[in-house]
Amino acid sequence: MAAPTKARVDSADRPLRPKGKELPFPLSLYQTAVGKKWVMAVTGIMLLGFVVFHMLGNLKLYLGVVEHNGVLDYDANIYGEWLRDLLVPFLPRTVTLWILRIGLIGAFGLHIHAMYALTMMNQQANVTYSSKRDWKAATFASRSMRYTGVIVLAYLIFHLADLTWGFIPGYDYERGHPHENVVGSLSNPVVAAFYIIANALLAMHIFHGAYSMFQSLGINNPAYNKLRRGFAAGVAGIILIGNVSFPIAVLAGIIDLSDKVK
Amino acid sequence: MSNTLNLTLNIWRQDGPNGPGRFETYKAPGIPEDASFLEMLDLVNEELIAQGKVPVEFPHDCREGICGSCGVMINGQAHGPERGTATCQLHMRKFSDGDTIDVEPWRAAAFPVIRDLVVDRSPLDAIIEAGGYISAPTGTAQDANETPIPKEVADSAMDAAACIGCGACVAACPNSAAQLFTAAKVWHLNSLPQGQPERYRRAQNMVETMELFFGSCTNHGECSEACPKEISQDFIAYLNRDHMKAKFFNRKLASQR
């Protein structure tokens, strides 16, 4: 005989999480998961903008030595100085750069916090299937966002320690000389390989992010929807090619210290 | 005489909401390829009853793809391998002789298993109760075309209203998010003139009720692939837009607090 069924659960009366009190704007926005995704998209655009300009700035490495104000120096070093001198004399030296940095740190903090909160929410809501799933639309990039994101964060910390703070031994770090530092650091094939792998994962992260942000922001127009995948692939591809080219160029000797005029 | 299939089924059996579940393997010989997936389960059950065993409980009602009662995970796909088809409308000719088929109930923390393949989908009702209706008095039926609605808008509302509430979107979602269901239910009212008075309150209330039970959308797109009505995930963008507008803009007038 059939085993008696237990009292029927009415799960509509049993939410997974309690309904909180609505906070004042703009916290009320961030209280909801839809709002957190909106924040993830906006901060993602800020971070993506940084990544694009960082890559474009790095292209200066290919220009080698140029003359600037009568002095011969690596173009990347001149560019680094220019960043510190942004909006001088309206603002004192490095202030603009620090405003941008604080904005990026804030965007990173919110992006990571929203990711953490949404991941917790999703893990609470999800029950894993016992049989094998057959994914139809989800891409490897979309399903690995959490992992690529965490690896990119670890890479970012290494990258800052390596080329901004000079904590990583292996070459003589010189503050204010990014060209020499990049060549010094990436001449080590192990470090270069790590940079290549991390940038490939960053490009994969951007591939889903640059597509997904339109949905999260509520931007949807059938006339342009077909362009979203192409846009995401284009942005991710440009960043991938640009960023991966630097360690390869250093290892291949295309970017080097040979043309330094002392 | 149609061809027949000999199948092996791995079916999830669970005695009650709290009981541990397990897969049990059944042989299903001589299944006509014209049978639907549910009719195939009926044949398996008849054999189980003949052997004096407990038949497999599975959700079903109209069996013509419009009620939203049926739905199981078939080989890792909600409603099985055919696109835009509920489990009841999936025919066995989509499988081959000798196939092994995994059959599992919808999985989500908000959808506890009641028995075998039957889950409790009442949290979807809670979302509807939060705003999936129009409470503005609309009077008696008026003359056709008295309220002009552009064809595109009427079509879009109809596409959204095609949702039968089966829960396949939640089942297919890696985050167990109910975004597609909620988006469809919100948009079919929010796109039409009759839905305007409560538009932003509806979006906000339904989203916030949804988030008490379900996960968050990460734009994989599995929901639309699984949907037996092929509802587009574009509606999720509309849901997000209306929800953000509800949050951003103050809708109170002078002297209202």
Query: What is the overall number of helices of chain B?
Result: 8
Mean pLDDT of chain B: 94
Strand content of chain A: under 5%
Radius of gyration of chain B: 21 Å
Would you mind describing this structure in some detail?
The complex is a heterodimer of chains A (262) and B (257). Chain A has 262 residues and is mainly α. Chain A has a single domain, classed as 3 helical TM bundles of succinate and fumarate reductases (Up-down Bundle). Helices cover 61% and strands 3% of the residues of chain A. The longest helix of chain B is centred in the C-terminal third of the chain and has 15 residues, at 199-213. In chain B, a hairpin with a 6-residue loop joins strand 1 (4-14) and strand 2. Chain B has 257 residues and is α+β, with helices and mostly antiparallel strands. Chain B folds into 2 domains: 4-114, Beta-grasp domain (Ubiquitin-like (UB roll), Roll); 121-248, Alpha-helical ferredoxin (Fumarate Reductase Iron-sulfur Protein, Chain B, domain 2, Orthogonal Bundle). In chain B, helix 3 (151-161) runs antiparallel to helix 5 (179-190). The mean pLDDT of chain B is 94. In chain B, the strands form 2 sheets. Chain B has a 5-stranded mixed β-sheet with strand order 2-1-5-3-4. In chain B, strands 6-7 form a two-stranded antiparallel sheet. In chain B, 33% of the residues lie in helices and 14% in strands. Chains A and B meet through helix 2, helix 4 and helix 8 of A and helix 2, helix 6, helix 7 and helix 8 of B.
Topology:
The complex is a heterodimer of chains A (262) and B (257).
Chain A: H1 27-31, H2 33-58, E1 65-68, E2 71-74, H3 75-84, H4 95-125, H5 140-143, H6 145-163, H7 178-186, H8 189-217, H9 227-252
Antiparallel strand pairs in A: 1-2
Chain B: E1 4-14, E2 21-32, H1 37-50, E3 73-74, E4 77-78, E5 100-104, E6 113-115, E7 118-119, H2 122-129, H3 151-161, H4 168-172, H5 179-190, H6 199-213, H7 222-226, H8 234-248
Parallel strand pairs in B: 1-5
Antiparallel strand pairs in B: 1-2, 3-4, 3-5, 6-7
